[in-house]
Amino acid sequence: MDTVAFSPDGRTLASGSYDNTVRLWNVTDPVHPAPLGEPVTAHSSTVSTVTFSRDSHMLATSSADETVRLWNVIDPAHPALVGPPLLGHTAAVESVAFGPDDHIVATAGDDKEVRLWNIPSTVLAAHTGAIDSGVFSPDGHILATSSDDKTVRLWDMKDPIRPTLLGMLPPVFSISVSALAFSPDGRTLATSTGPVIVLWNVTDPTNPVVSIGALLTGHANSTGPISSIPGINFSPDGRTLASAGADTTVRLWNVAKAAPLGEPLTGNRQPVASVTFSPDGRILASAGFDSSVRLWNVADPKQPVFLKKLDGQAGLTYSVAFSPDGHTLASGSSDKTIQLWDVANPAHAAPLGQPLTGHTKSIHSVVFSPDGHTLASGSGDQTIRLWDVANPAHAAPLGQPLTGHTATVFWLAFSPDGHTLASGGFDPTIRLWAMDINTAIQRLCTATRNTLTPTRWAQYVSELPYNPPCRAS
């Protein structure tokens, strides 16, 4: 054993060893310390330093392998990596320390260099399990996220560069929330937990409460790997809620009465993963594990009419999204492709161009930007890709893939102003990506502490000539 450190709250002891591992110990009873979880094995050489952030939520480890790793240890029995390793030292890293606000990490190595690293506030690491769903409120001021840790958290996004935690939904059931949806007026948050949909009054997001009589039941309980209700969505007028069921059905609900509308929509032979309304609320699209997309006329939600089944992708269809003008539909599949569809006339919908390729694993989420010019996709290959869909018949990749997640990217959400893209997945982090150039510059300057040297420029924007926008502080 080479290094040890107590967490500031005194509950956890971390140790680093010559066997390349980090171990965490429960020391709430120091007379009877107990190991927490399995040894952490990300480093490839001796672990030289372990140190906790001042809030005890994060652990930094340094190693003779010339790297520093950051870990989410809110649940110390299940530590999870936060982002990729910090690279730059050319010899063993012998020391690491957090700054006073936990946003800066200082490292020192045998290469005789001291380096300062910014931990951007745009990586939110409060959950301790996979992030199942995330959605912005219609005004963009709140981001709601749900996790396998059985919590739903509400984030204040008024300043997306410095998001803060507003509160959490009180637990209703002892299982995780798989899907989230805000009503168009932002006053109601719908959550799906097992085969039940709960409607929450979030008028005061610091004190959310279950709306009276707002438990929607009807879907069968899932006994397989997919959650009972993996997708929910409000109609644009807020009167109807649609739900996708692992029981192969889609259901429509009267929100005001918290009651079902008509009979379930059937036709899928396998679970339905996603549902979405067209911007005018007249068409409902569903994505199924039977490799299909189905379109329904729901102008009268009491009497929906099946319009068309869209086939063409070879794998499970995980996600569907309408463009803001309602003329284009995107579907993401386990066959690693995205298909764009012309749905201007839904009864005669047809493919637009060739499938979009580039991801190397299943595509779990597709979402259009509010202006309709950009499509974002999240994948099991741990990346997010952006696509220029201004002309959807000739869509093309936009820039390089966004990297940072260390596991499947399960969901994506654009803020209503289009300036921020939120992402989450099977690693326990939420990432916020600046889509607006001025916001991106501000975050870049913050990350480099306004000292954007040629070396750091090459690290962040190597494809452009050196022209730093930051003013030295």
**Spatial separation of the terminal alpha carbons:** 41 Å
Radius of gyration: 23 Å
E-strand count: 39
Number of domains: 3
Strand order of the largest sheet: 1-2-3-4
Helix- and strand-based class?
mainly beta
Overall average residue pLDDT: 89
Enumerate how many helices there are, as a single number: 2
The biggest beta sheet reads:
4 strands, antiparallel
The CATH homologous superfamily of the largest domain: YVTN repeat-like/Quinoprotein amine dehydrogenase
Shape: globular
Q: Can you name the CATH architecture of the largest domain?
A: 7 Propeller
Q: According to CATH, what is the class of the largest domain?
A: Mainly Beta
Beta-strand percent range: 35-45%
Task: Describe the 3D structure.
Helix content is 4%, strand content 44%. A hairpin with a 4-residue loop joins strand 26 (283-288) and strand 27. It is globular and about 70 Å long. The longest helix has 11 residues, at 437-447. A four-stranded antiparallel β-sheet has the order 1-2-3-4, with no helix packed on it. Strands 5-6-7-8 form a four-stranded antiparallel β-sheet, with no helix packed on it. The chain is built from two helices and 39 strands. The protein is mostly beta strands and 473 residues long.
